[in-house]
């Protein structure tokens, strides 16, 4: 943290005194004579030549994220660390101001998970990369972004789970693929639009728990969990989406610090997933190898172990201070540094950094491409699509504007006036922030409805002094909303929650409001991580319950349009909501997904208890009916026929699942159709998931409209991961569940096949 501020300060100074030198001068500067500026050469040759012209000390200056300029060669300084998790975000590389005072602030990734709409994710990512280029062209951002976070939201206590799309490896894989396409690929296929970074590799999902923080944590991960849960999102990011970089994490994995983990970085990321780009360390993680993990005993060994594992770039200053020592003591050779710089400069070249601006469309983007009407609409729509309706007794929602004339609506609670809170963490400066009160006033404008607000209580402080005013307001109101939840005082980077209950003070206020409210109370929850909402679910005095995540700049307007029925909600929970007792049932340190004597199992796949609300849950104002026609459906498949597939392609279709979805209710709306498979239990094999997601689609249906959705049931969906991480297709009965209904059965006949 302290390092962060020093770097920030350092950057501010560098930025003020050197703003003009954003791009290398390939026209008239010293570089223009070198192959680095020759576009007809392959990027690796261009990089190699530039590196060969640097002295050793100059090379070392380029191994950290705040890379210094090399005036002798005409190379400008470059800050590798910019952030854009859900919009351009505060970071050492990003500066808001001048013509670019703000950038679009989209909902947090946990909300994007709840939309189950990957086309939307792609469009958001395209806008983020466009705005990033506009900032870069104005000297206000880099081109390399340490975004996204694709660790699995394993435990509800994790403070950074909000940065991810949730607990499911399949959903996270789909999310990251769509996101990386939108960030890195635009209309000019010759260049990366921006360079993204998948983090944190790997098995990072703990901040600080019971006295052990992320810098010291050793994640004990079985091979089975690694292959089944902790690697798929990275495979999707690196191999399928071809991300330009990944970040090694703070923690150790089975005793080896991630940034020193040659097997993970070299064998898995580079050799198996074909990483075409660089590995950057998390900030200060190299120092942690020595000082926190005590994995090494000298600075030079630490440099060597990280560099040899494949950590090419450091966020921090350890390489800067100690790489020369490692060279002098012969722990590394100069070629090790050259290889690291090859990988980083190659990415800068692929970004067009050294190429003439005239021929690059991305270099023409400017303030007119930031905070556009399209971006504003998309941020509202994505917030609307992410809202999850959890409870709606007697169709109490939506409220009918026409029946509310001269009525008084009370908005009570600590998140009713939330602004920056709606941005979650890793955010920037939004062009505006529409809090729920403003949203309600907007949607009800002209209808003579009196919207009144009382805070009632804070997020978690035990102070009840504002209860009385809130209760008085509730007594005099026709309809009462409680806006609660949590915020970054409780869940954030560096801080995991200790409990997953709604803070006591909020529950106490809810119970008092229930007593005085003239009509059933409405509850709206803002949070990233799951909260035990069973009291609200159970209470007959609570009529409706909405989860709104951290919905970004237009979040308050989005929730108001849901409440008053201008938008029909269809978000689905991207995480399991566990009962409060969950935190006592399993250690935060336990990385195992499958249940054991000290673990009730994690996520919808393995949790053996009764969730408060399950993964995938979410209501609509309309109803949908699923019908199918099994004439074309193959319900018996011989294993032998699968083997005919010589390449052993994961995407080979075993059977095609088609269903018709009909909107049978009285309102237009979206439906998220989720397709799960329950694999057969093999005689003596390990525990199989209750079910696992293999397909999903969000469709819009007008009243009475029917659409067909198609889910290929592929080899990938049928694979079972054995305890030793080998992949198998077993014979037996596979049940296909669509939404909540078990609909199809497929029998695979023959002998088990080991898959590549
Ligand atoms: C750039 O590289 C190409 C291919 O090697 C070469 O033919 C050309 O002469 C080079 N251009 C300059 C200006 O050096
Ligand atoms: C938490 O730390 C205490 C004190 O070190 C220890 O006794 C306890 O076993 C730890 N709990 C878990 C679940 O690790
Ligand atoms: C409601 O919000 C929209 C979008 O932000 C804005 O254009 C409109 O002027 C607002 N209307 C009122 C009455 O506040
Ligand atoms: C909610 O209801 C369930 C089942 O009826 C019960 O087991 C649970 O204790 C109740 N929880 C709360 C907080 O009221
Ligand atoms: C839904 O479809 C089933 C056939 O799968 C049919 O029996 C049922 O009547 C339909 N329900 C409604 C409400 O249309
Ligand atoms: C869906 O409905 C269309 C039109 O009625 C029909 O042609 C098609 O076979 C149906 N598909 C399924 C899977 O039932
Ligand atoms: C189609 O469904 C019917 C009724 O559910 C069932 O009896 C039949 O076996 C199914 N056919 C196939 C090919 O699965
Ligand atoms: C079944 O268990 C035996 C003995 O533990 C083992 O050798 C064999 O590989 C197991 N088979 C499967 C399919 O897991
Ligand atoms: C939907 O179908 C029902 C029953 O057929 C009909 O009464 C209703 O008017 C239809 N609604 C629309 C919007 O077409
Ligand atoms: C892995 O386990 C499976 C059974 O689950 C067994 O058949 C296979 O031989 C094992 N592979 C290795 C390399 O041990």
From TrEMBL:
Region forming the signal peptide: 1-18
- Family named by the database record: Belongs to the glycosyl hydrolase 3 family.
Q: Where is the Fibronectin type III-like domain?
A: 671-742
Q: What is this protein called?
A: Fibronectin type III-like domain-containing protein
Q: Which InterPro entries match?
A: BXL, Fn3-like, GH, Glyco_hydro_3_C, Glyco_hydro_3_C_sf, Glyco_hydro_3_N, Glyco_hydro_3_N_sf, Ig-like_fold
> Mind listing the GO biological process terms from this record?
arabinan catabolic process; xylan catabolic process
Return the Pfam families for the record: Fn3-like, Glyco_hydro_3, Glyco_hydro_3_C
Q: Which UniProt keywords apply?
A: Glycosidase, Hydrolase, Signal
Which PANTHER family does the record cross-reference, listed alphabetically?
Answer: BETA-D-XYLOSIDASE 5-RELATED, SUGAR HYDROLASE-RELATED
Do the record's keywords include Ribonucleoprotein? no
An example Gene Ontology molecular-function term: xylan 1,4-beta-xylosidase activity
């Amino acid at each position: 943290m302290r390092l962060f501020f020093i770097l920030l300060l350092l950057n501010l100074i560098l930025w003020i005194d050197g703003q003009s030198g954003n791009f290398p001068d390939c026209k008239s500067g010293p570089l223009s004579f070198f192959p680095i500026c020759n576009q007809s050469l392959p990027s690796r040759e261009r990089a190699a030549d530039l590196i060969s012209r640097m002295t050793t000390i100059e090379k070392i200056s380029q191994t950290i994220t705040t890379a210094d300029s090399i005036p002798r060669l005409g190379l400008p300084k470059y800050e590798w660390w910019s952030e854009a998790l859900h919009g351009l975000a505060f970071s050492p590389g990003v500066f808001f101001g001048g013509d670019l005072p703000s950038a679009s602030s989209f909902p947090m990734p946990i909300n994007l998970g709840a939309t189950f709409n990957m086309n939307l994710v792609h469009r958001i990512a395209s806008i983020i990369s466009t705005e990033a280029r506009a900032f870069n062209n104005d000297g206000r951002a880099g081109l390399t972004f340490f975004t996204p976070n694709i660790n699995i939201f394993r435990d509800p206590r994790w403070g950074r789970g909000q940065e991810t799309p949730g607990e499911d490896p399949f959903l996270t894989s789909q999310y990251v693929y769509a996101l990386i396409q939108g960030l890195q690929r635009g209309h000019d296929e010759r260049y990366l639009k921006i360079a993204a970074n998948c983090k944190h590799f790997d098995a990072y999902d703990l901040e600080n728990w019971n006295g052990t923080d992320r810098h010291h944590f050793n994640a004990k991960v079985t091979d089975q969990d690694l292959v089944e849960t902790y690697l798929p999102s990275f495979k999707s990011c690196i191999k399928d989406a071809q991300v330009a970089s990944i970040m090694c994490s703070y923690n150790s994995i089975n005793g080896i610090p991630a940034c020193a983990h040659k097997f993970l970085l070299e064998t898995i990321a580079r050799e198996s997933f074909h990483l075409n780009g660089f590995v950057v360390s998390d900030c200060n993680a190299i120092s942690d190898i020595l000082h926190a993990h005590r994995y090494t005993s000298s600075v030079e060994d630490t440099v060597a172990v990280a560099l040899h594992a494949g950590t090419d770039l450091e966020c921090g200053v350890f390489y800067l201070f100690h790489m020369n020592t490692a060279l002098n003591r012969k722990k590394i050779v100069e070629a090790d540094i050259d290889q690291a710089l090859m990988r980083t400069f190659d990415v800068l070249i692929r970004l067009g950094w050294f190429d003439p601006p005239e021929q690059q469309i991305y270099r023409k983007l400017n303030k007119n491409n930031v905070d556009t009407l399209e971006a504003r609409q998309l941020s509202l729509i994505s917030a609307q699509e992410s809202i999850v309706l959890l409870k709606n007794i007697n169709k109490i929602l939506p409220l009918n504007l026409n029946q509310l004339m001269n009525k008084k609506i009370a908005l009570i609670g600590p998140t009713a006036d939330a602004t920056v809170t709606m941005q979650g963490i890793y955010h920037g400066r939004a062009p505006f922030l529409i809090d729920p009160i403003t949203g309600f006033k907007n949607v009800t404008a002209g209808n003579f409805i009196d919207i009144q607000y009382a805070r009632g209580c804070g997020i978690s402080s035990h102070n009840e002094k504002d209860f009385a005013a809130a209760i008085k307001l509730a007594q005099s109101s026709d309809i009462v909303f409680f806006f609660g939840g949590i915020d970054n005082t409780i869940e954030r980077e560096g801080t995991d929650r200790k409990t997953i209950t709604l803070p006591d003070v909020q529950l106490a206020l809810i119970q008092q409001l229930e007593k005085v409210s003239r009509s059933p109370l409405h509850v709206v929850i803002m949070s990233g991580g799951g909260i035990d909402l069973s009291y609200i679910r159970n209470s007959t005095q609570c009529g409706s319950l909405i989860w709104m995540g951290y919905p970004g700049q237009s979040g308050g307007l989005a929730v108001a349009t849901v409440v008053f029925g201008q938008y029909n909600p269809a978000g689905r929970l991207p995480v399991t909501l566990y009962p409060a007792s969950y935190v006592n049932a399993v250690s935060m340190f336990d990385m195992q997904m499958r249940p054991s004597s000290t673990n009730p199992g994690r996520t919808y796949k393995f949790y053996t208890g009764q969730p408060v609300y399950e993964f995938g849950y979410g209501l609509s104002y309309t109803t949908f009916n699923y019908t199918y026609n099994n004439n074309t459906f193959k319900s018996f498949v011989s294993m032998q026929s699968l083997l005919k597939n010589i390449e052993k392609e994961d995407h080979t279709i075993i059977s095609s699942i088609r269903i018709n979805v009909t909107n049978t209710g009285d309102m237009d709306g979206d439906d998220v159709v989720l397709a799960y498979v329950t694999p057969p239990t093999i005689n003596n094999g390990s525990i199989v998931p209750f079910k696992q997601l293999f397909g999903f689609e969000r469709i819009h249906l007008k009243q009475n409209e029917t659409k067909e959705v198609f889910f290929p049931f592929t080899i990938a969906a049928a694979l079972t991961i054995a305890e030793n991480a080998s992949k198998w297709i077993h014979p037996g009965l596979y049940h296909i569940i669509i939404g909540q209904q078990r609909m199809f059965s497929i029998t695979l006949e023959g002998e088990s096949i080991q898959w590549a």
